[in-house]
Amino acid sequence: MYSYVKTAVLSGIDAIMVDAEADVSDGLPCVDMVGFVSGEVRESKERIRTALKNNGISLPAKRVTINLAPASVKKSGSGLDLPIAVSIMTALGIISQNDLNNVFMVGELRLDGAVSGINGMLSYVLKAKEEGINKCIVPMDNLCEARLVSGIEIIGIEHLLDVLDAVSGKKVYYDESGIPVSEGMPDSSQTILEEQEEGSSEKLDFSDIRGQQVLRRACEIAVAGMHNFLMTGPPGAGKTMVAKRIPTILPPLLPEERLEVSKIYSVCGLMDGKRGLMTSRPIRSPHHTVSAAGLSGGGAVIKPGEVSLAHKGVLYLDELPEFAPSALETLREPLEDRKIKITRAMNTVEYPADILLCSSMNPCKCGYYPSNRCTCTRQSVIKYRSRISKPLMDRIDLVVEAAAISFDELNGSGSNESSAEIRKRVEKCHRIQQERYRDCDINFNSRLNPAMMQKFCALGEQENALMEKMYDKFKLTARGYHKILKVARTIADLDESEKILKKHLCEALCFRMETEQGR
Amino acid sequence: MFPHGNRTGEVMGLSTDITNERMKYEFWLSSIDGIGPKTIKQLMKYTSGAYEIYHLPPADLMAVRGIGEAEASLIFESRKTFDIEKEWEKLAEKSIHFITRNSVQYPERLKEIQDAPYWLYYIGELPSDEEMSVAVVGARACTDNGAKWAYEIGEKMADLGVSVVSGLARGIDGHSHRGALAHGGKTFAVMGCGVDVVYPEEHWKLYEDILEGGGGIISEYKPSTAPRPKLFPPRNRIISGLSDVLIVVEAREKSGTLITADAALEQNRDVYVLPGRINDINSRGTNRLIKQGAGIILDIEDLAADLGLRSDGGAVRKRNLELKLEKEEFIVYSNLDLRSKGLEEIASSTGMSVPELAVIIMGLMDKGYITETDPGKYRINAG
Question: Is 0.90 surpassed by the pTM of this model?
Fold first, then answer.
C-alpha cells in the first residue's frame, strides 16, 4: 500500500518541500530508502524501525520502500524521521491517508518514540504556509518558534503516537502556557517585543563612554550610512566598548528584515522561540582564530557563518590583523554582493550577508604609534598595517583613531550623549536615504555605485575645487575619491543638507582610509 | 706682465689638456673589474699613473710586486676591450664627473683619511672645502622618533649653512637628506653603488631633489655598479671622511652605522649621538657610542652650540606664525606639534567639535602649514 507525508528539507535558509513516500509490498523483508539521501538521513532508518517497534508497531515481513521525492534535491538533516515513520504507519494502515493530505510535519525521533526539536523550524513553517498547508505538526520543543508564523494551525507533539490524535483532531493540545492550540495564537509576539526592548540593551549605552568625541562621531556617520569602518588605537582605548554599543544606535529591524534574520538564527539553532522574532540588530564578534568556513559559512554540513549571522547587523572583527588572511579574504564577496554563495560539488547554497563591518586594530605591533611610547620602527608599522590586504581595505569607508583617554576625561563628570539621542539622528538619516533611493535598489549611501554618485553626490563649484586640490595633495585614487564622496553624502544627510558642502567633504577627508605610504 | 700672463694661460691650457687625456686612462684603470684598491696601491707605488700602466709591456707589469698573472691579464684584456673614448663620452653624457686623488676638486677632508679612495665619481657637486659639513647617519629601520630628529637635525644644519652628508638609505639617512632639503640646504649622498644607480629605488625623488638642491651624489664605484652588501661598509668611511662631524641618530648593535662611527673615530672626527632608552634596540648602538665617549645631543640648539655654530633661533612655528592665520586656525595650529597628533587629541585640547575641526584642518593643510602623517593624524609642517 502506498502513502505519503508532506515534509521539507533545508537549503540555505529556506526550506524545500519534500514528500516522504512509503510503500509496503510483497517481497523479501527489507527496508529500502531511496531519493538522494545523505548519511544522517540514511541513519534514520534504524531509528524509525526501533521507535516503531518500541511502540508496538513492528514492521511486517514485507518489502518496505521509502522514497524521498523529488530525487534531485539532496536530503539532509534529522527532521525527516517523523514524516518517514508516519508515512510507514500510513502504509501499514494505522493512519488514514486522507487525514494527511493537507498536513505538514517535521521532527526527529528518539528510540522510544519521543519527538525532539530540530533547527530551522521557522523556515519549515513559512514554507508550509506558502504551500497552502493548513496544519503543521512540529516537535513540542519548537512550538514557540513555529507559532511565530501566523495563519496556520500548529500542533506541538511530544511523542510519535501523538500524531494519531493530532491528525484526526481528537485531542485538544495545549502549549506551554496552557492555552489550547486551536484557540489561536494570542498576540504574544507583541508583548515579547516590548519585554525585549527593555532587556536587550542590557544597559549598554553610548553615554558609558568617556571622551572619544571623534570616535563617537565616526560611529554615528558609519551607522547612519552603513559604512564599513575601522578603528585604530592603543590597547585599552575603548574600541571594543564602542563596538558593543553600536547596535544600540542602530534602528530596530524592519518587519521583513526580522523574519529573514530570525530564519538564519533558526537554521543555526540559535533561535529562542519564546523571545519571538529577532527585533534588535545582531552583533557578532568572532574570535580572531575563526576559520574561513566559520566566518563565511560552509563546513561538511553547510551552515551559515558569522557573516550571515550578522546579517542586517554588525560584524565586529577585533584585532583585524590577527585574523587568518584566508578567512578575511572570504569577506570580499559578501561585502560587495551582500550575500554569500557556497558551492559544493553536489549543491549550491546562498546565505544573506548584508552587514556593517566594524573592525579594530592596533596602529602597530606595540600598539602605541604614534605616541612617544611606541618602540616600533617605521617599517614595522607599515608591515603591521600591510597584513590587511588592499582589496579588504578598499571595502572600508572610514578609519578613525580611538585615542588613549586622559585621566581627566576618564574621571570627568560631564555626561555624554546617550544612545537614544544618537539613534534618533541615525533613524532620521536612514529615512532621508530611503526617501532619496526609493527608485533605486539601494537603501544606504554606502551602497552607491559611481553612476548613482553622479546623480546623488554632485558637487558645487567651490566643493569641486577643494576636491581637485585634495585629490592631488593626498594622492587619492578613483576608489578613494568615491569613498570620500559617499561618506560626505552621509555627513550631509546627518546635517540635513540637500547639497554636499565643503565642511562635509572636509570631515570625510579626515576619516578617509587612503594615505600616502612611506616617508 | 701681459706676455707672461698669456704664456701662463697657454701652459695652463696645455696642462688641462694633458690632465684631461691622462684622466681618461685613470678612468680606464678604475673601470677594470677585479682590480681592487690593494693592487692599485701597488701599481701606483711603482708607476707614474694609469697612463704609464696602459702602455707598459706585460713583463714590466708583472715585475710590480703584488701583480700576478691574473691581475696582469685582466689589465691586458681590458686594454683591448675597453673603448676609452667611447666610455669617456658616455660618462659625460650622464654628466658624471670623474676625479682622482690628485685632482684639485678632490675634497681636502677626504684626502686626510688613511684609505682615501683613489677615484671618485660624482654627479652634481662635492662638499665645499670652505664650508662645514656634517654626516648624519643611522638605522634604516628607524623609529618615528629617530626619523623626526634626523629630519630636524637636517633642517637645523641647513639653517646654519652646514652641508649634510649621508647615504641615501631608507630611514635616518633619507630623513636627514629631506630635512636639509626642506630648509634649502645642500646635502650629499655617498652611494654603495654606481652614482647613476638609485638605491633604494623608492628614493628616486629624493635623489633628484638632492641634485636640484645643489648637492651631489658621490661614489667610489664605477657607474652602473649594482648595490651589493660588501660595497656598503667601505663607503661608510667616505661619508665620515667628507664630514667634519658625525652625528649618529639611531643604531643597532653590530650595524653599518657603527662601522661609520668607527671610521669617523679613526679619521679623528667628532662623533655626536642622539641618546635613547636602553631597551630600544635602535638605541643600543648609540648608547654604546656614548659609553665609548661620544658627545650627546641634548637638543638641536645644544648640538649647534657644541659644533660652535651660532643659532639664529628661528623656530619653525614662530616663522610660520608670522603668516596670517584666522583666529580658529591659530588655535588649532598652536595646539599642534612636530610630533603628529590624532584628531581626538586636537579636539580635546581645542574644545572644538569634529565638524568644525575638520574644516580648519583641511584649510591649514591646503595652505601648507600642517601635514598629515597618517589618516587623521597631523603635525605642523616644518618645510
Answer: no
Could you give phi then psi for residue B192, rounded to 5 degrees?
-95, 25
How many whole angstroms separate alpha carbon A505 and alpha carbon A509?
A: 6
Cell numbers placing B223: 657607474
CB B197 within 8 A of CB B224: yes
Instruction: Record the cell numbers describing residue B143, joined without a space.
Output: 623609529
Pairing of strands B163-166, B133-137: parallel
Percent of chain A with pLDDT over 70: 92
Q: How far is A315 from chain B (nearest CA, A)?
A: 23
For residue B344, what is the nearest residue in chain A, using CA coordinates? A214
CB-side neighbour CA atoms (13 Å) of A355: 33
The H or E element spanning position A496 is none
Distance from CA of A411 to the nearest CA of B (A): 14
Residues A292-347 have pLDDT tens digits of: 999 999 887 788 999 999 999 999 999 999 999 999 999 999 998 899 999 887 77
Which alpha helices (DSSP H) does B31-98 contain, by range?
37-46, 50-55, 58-63, 69-81, 84-93
DSSP, res A37: B
Which residues of chain A have a CB within 8 Å of the CB of B357?
A: 510
Strand B245-248 to B270-273 pairing: parallel
> Mutation test of the interface with chain B: which of A242, A375, A473, choosing the one with the most B Cβ atoms within 10 A?
A375
φ, ψ at B226 (rounded to 5°): -80, 150
Q: Which residue has the cell 703584488?
A: B66
Record the cell numbers describing residue A91, joined without a space: 502504509
Choose, out of B278, B343, B379, the residue to mutate when testing the contact with A (most A CBs < 10 Å).
Answer: B343
Residue A517 predicted with pLDDT over 80: no
**Nearest residue to A425 via CA among A259, A258, A221:** A221
Full 3-state SS string of A233-301: CCCCCCHHHHHHHHHHHCCCCCHHHHHHHHHHHHHCCCCCHHHCCCCCCCEECCCCCCCHHHHHCECCC
Contact call for residues B140 and B169 (beta carbons, < 8 A) = yes
Mutate to test the interface with B, among A209, A213, A214, A513 (most CBs of B within 10 A): A214
Looking at this protein, which amino acid is placed at residue A174? Y
The 8-class DSSP code of residue B94 comes to T
- What single DSSP character describes residue A377? B
Question: Which three-class secondary structure state does DSSP give residue A518?
Answer: coil
* Residue A53 DSSP SS3: helix
CA gap A74, A236 in Å, rounded: 49
What are residue B245's phi and psi, to 5 degrees? -140, 145
* Strand, coil or helix: A64: strand
| B362:A217 CB<8 A | no
Reported ipTM exceeds the 0.90 cut: no
C-alpha cell read off for A135:
496544519
Q: Does B63 touch chain A (CB under 8 A)?
A: no
Distance separating alpha carbons of residues A312 and A357, to the nearest angstrom: 11
Going A197 to A200 to A206 to A208, the CA torsion angle's sign is positive
